[in-house]
Design a protein that fits this description.
By secondary structure, this protein is α/β, with parallel strands linked by helices. It contains 28 helices and 39 strands.
C-alpha cells in the first residue's frame, strides 16, 4: 500500500522513511491511513495476550470496530499514528493524541500529547519501538508538541527502557499502580548521541550480515559454466568459504553445478540463506528478489547491470528494485556491483568477480563505487604486498553506500586503515560526520573521482565547489587524495608504519641527486627536511642499516625517507638491503620509514615481505586502547597510531610519491593530535536566541513553503544585532539634500557609496567616496558620482559613518542542500575572488575551527602585520565568526548570510553591509530521526 498526496492531500508523505533496525534488517515507517484497517486487525491478532495487556492495562483479546476506526483515522495534527512495516505487514505501531492540562483531548496551542506503542512479539528486541519513538517525536515537534506523556505498567520493563534510554529530559513518577513518564521532546546532546549510537550499531550490523553470512546462494548460474553467475560461484567455492554454498538455476537438471549443490529455485533450497548473489538479466531480477524475500534472505549483492547506468528507464527500474528489496527488510549492494570480499579466517568470503586467489589477509579495508577501479586497486595492493580485511564494490550504490561501510569499519577490529574510492558523496553532511568519528581512531583515505554525478547515482545536489568539499573533508580528518595511485601510496604507508610525530624528515641514500629531488619534494609538501645524507654509490647494506638506525634514534627527525639506486654489481643485493633496513627499524621502532627506489623492483618485493602471518595483527601497545571506539566514546582522544604490520616497509618508484604519502601522514597525525583539544562552541550571554526566533517567525509568517525571503537592511541589522554582530547603519540618499540630512544624523565624517547591483562592492569603479568631513565635500562628491556613473535612481546611493581603516574581509554562511551549514571566510577584493582564496568550515564551528579558518587562506599574513603593517584585531574577527556560526546553527530558517565587507581594524570589527536570506526550514535534517536515503 502506497498512499500519495494525490489520493489524500492531507497525507504527510514526508513522514515516510526506511530505517535499519538493531539486528541489521530494515523496516518502513509510515503514517497509518484509513486503508490500513485489515492490516491493523491482522497485526493485533498476532500480538500476545501479555503485550495486549501491557498496552491496554486489561485483557483485550480483539479490537472493536470502534477501536479500528479510531486507530486508522487521523488528522495528522492532533492525532497521529505511525506503523513500522515489512512488506505489507505491520510489525509495530505508535500513536499520539494531543491533550490539554486536564488530560483530555485538545488542539493547539496545547503542547503535550499522550503516546503509546505496540510491537509484535516476534519483532521485539529489534529496536522497533526505539525507531518509532524517534520518528513520532520528530512528527510531534513539527506539529508543535513539546512533551510526551506515557502510562506504563511497572512490569512492562522493556517499554520503560525504551523511554528512559532515549536521552530526552524526563520526569518519572508512580501513580495509581502505573509508571507515569513525561518526556521533553527538545533534542539534547544526550538524545542525539543515543540516536547516532543506535544508527551506528544498526548500520554496522547490516553490513556485517552482508560480509559474514552463514550461507550464500548464487542466483543465475549457467549450466555451461560461462557468465557472471558461474564466475561468482567459482570464486566463492575456490575462496574456501566456510558457510553453506548453493547454486540456483531454474533449468538445472543435475544436483551439482561446478561442484556446488544446485536447485531450481531459492525456495527449493530448504535451508536458511543469509546472502544471495543475483546475476540474472535486469528484467528477471524482480522475480529473483521476490523469491529471496519470501525465503527470508537477509541481503543481496546484485551484479546485474541495466539500471541507473543505462538511462532514465534504467534509473526508474533501479528505484523500483530498491523499493522491492526494502519491502522485504533486506539490504542491497548494487546493482551493477562488482561484489564483496571478507578475508576473515572464519569466513573467507569472495562474493565478487575477483578470481582466485583471493587477496591475502590484511588490516586495510577498501570500498569503491567503480568495479573497474576496484579491480585496479586490488591489483595494485596485491602487487605491492598489501592484504585486505574487507572489500566492497557497490556499483550504483542504490542502498548500501560508503556511509554504511564507515559505520562497519569504525568498530571493526580487523581494519586499521580505510581506503575509499568515491564518485559521489551521497550525503556529504553524514559522510563528514561519520568520517570524523572514524578518523579519530583510524585513518580514512578518500580518492574522489568525477566532478559530476555518474549515471546510476541518485544523490542530492550540492552548490559547493570541489575545493570546498575537499576542505570540509580535511576538517573532518579525511585524507583526501587526487588519484587512485595516491590512494594506494598513502594506504600502504599508513597500514605499515606508525604516524610521524612532526614534519621533520631525514633523507639518506646512495644517490646525491635522488636525495636532492626528495629534499625538494619535501619542501613542496610543506615538510621540514634535514640536509640529505649521501652514503655514496659504494654504500653497502650495512652502511644503510647504520645510517637508518642513527636517523631513527635521533631526536632531530620524525620520519625517514631512504633513497636507493642499483649497485654496479653482478649480483642482486635487494634481499640484503631489505633485511638491513628492517633490522634498523626493529632496533629503533616508532618512526615511519619509506623507501624511494629507482629500477629496483626486487627491493619492493623484499620490503613488502612480512616476518609473520599477514592475518595476525601485531601486539598493540597499551596506549593503543585509546583508539578504540569505546575509549573514544568515553572521551579518549584516540591519539595513538595504527598498529603497523610487522617488518614491512613501503617502497615507491618516485621521490614525489613517497614524500606525498609521508606528508599526508604528517598532516593526519597533526589532526589527530589537535583532536585531543578540539575546541568548544562558546556561549555568549548577550545572545538573544528567543528574540531572534520570534523575529524570524514573524518574518516568515506570510512566506510560502519553499520560498526565500531576503531581509531588508533594517531587519537584517536587527537580527544580526541579536547575536552581537554589528552592521554599520546605512541611510538612503536619493538626493543631495537627503544625503546631507543622513550625514547630520550619522555624524561626520561619512562615506558616500552606490549600492546598485552592478556597482556594489566595486570600489575600483569609483562608486565610493570616503572621509567626507562636511556638507560641501558631501555635495561635491554626490555631484561627481551622478555625473560619472548615472542618475541617483540608478545608483541607489547611501551614506554611512566612517569606521577605522583596516583589512577588508568577507564572511559568509550558506546552507548547502547536501553538506548543511558552511561558514566561509576570505579577504575582500577581486584578487581573492580570482584566486579562489576562501576557506570553509562546517557549522557549528568551534573556537579552534575559526582560528584555523582565518589562518588557512593564502592572504592571511595581511591580518598579522605583513611588511611592517600593524596586526589587526583577529580575536574580534574570530568572535564575529563564532557568533555568525551560532546564529545559523540555532536558527535553520537562516539559509544564507553575507557580510561584505567586514572591516577588521587594529581594534574591533564592523560589517559595512549585510545580506540575509531566510526560509522555512526543512521538516527533517541531520538532527532528525535516522533514516535511509529515499528512492
Amino acid at each position: 500500500m502506497r498512499m500519495t498526496i494525490e489520493s489524500d492531500p492531507s497525507y504527510p508523505a514526508h513522514w515516510e522513511a526506511d530505517v535499519v533496525l538493531r539486528d541489521g534488517g530494515t523496516a518502513r515507517i509510515r503514517p497509518i491511513t484509513t486503508e490500513d484497517a485489515g492490516r491493523l486487525v491482522s497485526f493485533y491478532e498476532q500480538v500476545s495476550d501479555e503485550s495486549k495487556y501491557y498496552r491496554f492495562f486489561a485483557p483485550y483479546p480483539r479490537l472493536s470496530d470502534r477501536d479500528v476506526h479510531r486507530f486508522t483515522h487521523h488528522d495528522y495534527v492532533d492525532r497521529v499514528g505511525l506503523a513500522a512495516t515489512v512488506g505489507e505487514e505491520f510489525i509495530g505501531t505508535v500513536r499520539y493524541d494531543r491533550i490539554g492540562p486536564d488530560g483530555r483531548p485538545a488542539s493547539a496551542p496545547a503542547d503535550e500529547a499522550e503516546v503509546a506503542f505496540l510491537v509484535q512479539d516476534a519483532h521485539q528486541g529489534r529496536g522497533v519501538a526505539s525507531a518509532l519513538l524517534e520518528h513520532i517525536g520528530a512528527v510531534a515537534r513539527e506539529r508543535g508538541i513539546r512533551r510526551f506523556a506515557a502510562e506504563v505498567l511497572p512490569a512492562n520493563t522493556k517499554m520503560i527502557k525504551v523511554f528512559t534510554d532515549a536521552g530526552y529530559q524526563q520526569k518519572r513518577s508512580f501513580e495509581d499502580g502505573s509508571v507515569h513518564l513525561t518526556l521533553d521532546l527538545e533534542p539534547t546532546a544526550e538524545s542525539l548521541a543515543v540516536q547516532r549510537a543506535r544508527e551506528q550499531r544498526a548500520e554496522a550490523r547490516s553490513v556485517q550480515r552482508l560480509l559474514a553470512p552463514g550461507s550464500v546462494a548464487v542466483v543465475g548460474v549457467s549450466r555451461s559454466g560461462a557468465g557472471v553467475g558461474a564466475a561468482a560461484l567459482r570464486n566463492l567455492r575456490d575462496s574456501g568459504f566456510h558457510g553453506h554454498l548453493y547454486a540456483v538455476n531454474e533449468a538445472a537438471t543435475r544436483d551439482l553445478l561446478d561442484g556446488v549443490r544446485a536447485y531450481r529455485t531459492v525456495e527449493a533450497i530448504g535451508a536458511p540463506v543469509d546472502l544471495a548473489v543475483i546475476a540474472v538479466p535486469a528484467d528477471r531480477v524482480p522475480d529473483a528478489v521476490a523469491a529471496c524475500g519470501e525465503h527470508g534472505v537477509q541481503g543481496l549483492v546484485v551484479l546485474s547491470a541495466g539500471y541507473g547506468d543505462s538511462g532514465p528507464a534504467g534509473l526508474a527500474r533501479q528505484r523500483e528494485l530498491l523499493r522491492q528489496v526494502r519491502s522485504y527488510g533486506m539490504r542491497l549492494i548494487g546493482p551493477n556491483a562488482y561484489g564483496v570480499i571478507n578475508t576473515a579466517p572464519e569466513v573467507e568470503l569472495n562474493a565478487s568477480l575477483t578470481p582466485a586467489p583471493m587477496p591475502v589477509r590484511g588490516r586495510t579495508g577498501l570500498f569503491t563505487q567503480s568495479g573497474a577501479i576496484g579491480i585496479a586497486l586490488l591489483s595494485a595492493l596485491l602487487r605491492r604486498g598489501e592484504g585486505l580485511s574487507s572489500f566492497v564494490s557497490a556499483g550504483n550504490r542504490a542502498d548500501v553506500s560508503g556511509n554504511d561501510i564507515l559505520q562497519y569499519w569504525y568498530e571493526d577490529e580487523a581494519t586499521d586503515v580505510a581506503l575509499m574510492y568515491l564518485e559521489t558523496l551521497g550525503n556529504p553532511r553524514k559522510f563528514t560526520r561519520l568520517a570524523r568519528r572514524t578518523a579519530a581512531v583510524k585513518p580514512v583515505v578518500v580518492a574522489k573521482g568525477g566532478r559530476h554525478t555518474p549515471a546510476g547515482h541518485v544523490v542530492p545536489g550540492t552548490r559547493l565547489s570541489e575545493d570546498t568539499v575537499s576542505a570540509l573533508l580535511r576538517q573532518a580528518g579525511v585524507i583526501r587524495v587526487d588519484t587512485v595511485t595516491e590512494l594506494v601510496d598513502v594506504g600502504l604507508l599508513l597500514a605499515s608504519q606508525p604516524l610521524p610525530a612532526g614534519p621533520r624528515i631525514a633523507i639518506l641514500g646512495n644517490s646525491e641527486s635522488l636525495g636532492v629531488l626528495t629534499y625538494d619534494a619535501c619542501l613542496t609538501q610543506g615538510l621540514r627536511p634535514l640536509p640529505p645524507l649521501d652514503l655514496t654509490t659504494a654504500a653497502s647494506p650495512e652502511d644503510f642499516r647504520t645510517a637508518l638506525a642513527a636517523a631513527l634514534a635521533s631526536d632531530d627527525c620524525d620520519a625517514v625517507i631512504v633513497t636507493a639506486i642499483p649497485w654496479v654489481s653482478e649480483h642482486a643485493l635487494a634481499d640484503d638491503l631489505a633485511d638491513a633496513l628492517r633490522e634498523a627499524v626493529a632496533e629503533t621502532p616508532g618512526k615511519p620509514v619509506a623507501v624511494v627506489h629507482v629500477e629496483l623492483a626486487e627491493l619492493v618485493q623484499a620490503l613488502s615481505a612480512t616476518r609473520g602471518p599477514a592475518d595476525q595483527p601485531p601486539d598493540r601497545p597499551a596506549a593503543d586502547a585509546a583508539r578504540t571506539p569505546a575509549a573514544l566514546a568515553a572521551g579518549g582522544a584516540g591519539t595513538s597510531t595504527p598498529a603497523p604490520a610487522p617488518g614491512r616497509i613501503p617502497g615507491y618508484p618516485a621521490a614525489e610519491r613517497a614524500v606525498k604519502a609521508v606528508a599526508e601522514a604528517v598532516r593526519y597525525g597533526q589532526w589527530r593530535r589537535a583532536l585531543a583539544d578540539a575546541g568548544h562552541v562558546p556561549e555568549y550571554e548577550d545572545i538573544d536566541e528567543a528574540g531572534a526566533a520570534a523575529q524570524l517567525a514573524g518574518l516568515l509568517a506570510h512566506v510560502d513553503d519553499g520560498a526565500v525571503l531576503t531581509l531588508s537592511d533594517w531587519d537584517a541589522r536587527e537580527l544580526l544585532a541579536r547575536y552581537g554582530i554589528r552592521v554599520l547603519p546605512t541611510l538612503p540618499a536619493p538626493s543631495p539634500d537627503a544625503a546631507v540630512r543622513a550625514a547630520e544624523v550619522l555624524g561626520y565624517p561619512v562615506a558616500l557609496k552606490t549600492t546598485a547591483p552592478h556597482l556594489r562592492h566595486r570600489a575600483d569603479l569609483g562608486g565610493v567616496r570616503l572621509d567626507l568631513t562636511n556638507e560641501a565635500e558631501l555635495r561635491r562628491s554626490y555631484e561627481e558620482l551622478t555625473d560619472a556613473l548615472g542618475k541617483p535612481a540608478e545608483l541607489q546611493p547611501v551614506v554611512q559613518p566612517m569606521v577605522p581603516r583596516g583589512v577588508d574581509t568577507v564572511v559568509r554562511s550558506v546552507i548547502d542542500p547536501a553538506a548543511g551549514a558552511v561558514l566561509s571566510f576570505g579577504l575582500a577584493g577581486v584578487a581573492s575572488e580570482l584566486l579562489g582564496d576562501t576557506a570553509h568550515r562546517l557549522v557549528p564551528a568551534t573556537d579552534r575551527d575559526v582560528a584555523a579558518l582565518i589562518r588557512s587562506i593564502r592572504a592571511a599574513p595581511l591580518l598579522f602585520g605583513w611588511r611592517g603593517s600593524d596586526p589587526v584585531d583577529t580575536p574580534a574577527l574570530e568572535e564575529a565568526l563564532l557568533r555568525l556560526s551560532r546564529l545559523v546553527d540555532d536558527h535553520p530558517e537562516v539559509i544564507g548570510v553575507t557580510l561584505e565587507p567586514v572591516v577588521v581594524a587594529i581594534e574591533g570589527v564592523c560589517a559595512l553591509s549585510a545580506t540575509v536570506r531566510v526560509a522555512h526550514p526543512p521538516a527533517r535534517g541531520d538532527l532528525g530521526p535516522r533514516t535511509l536515503p529515499s528512492y
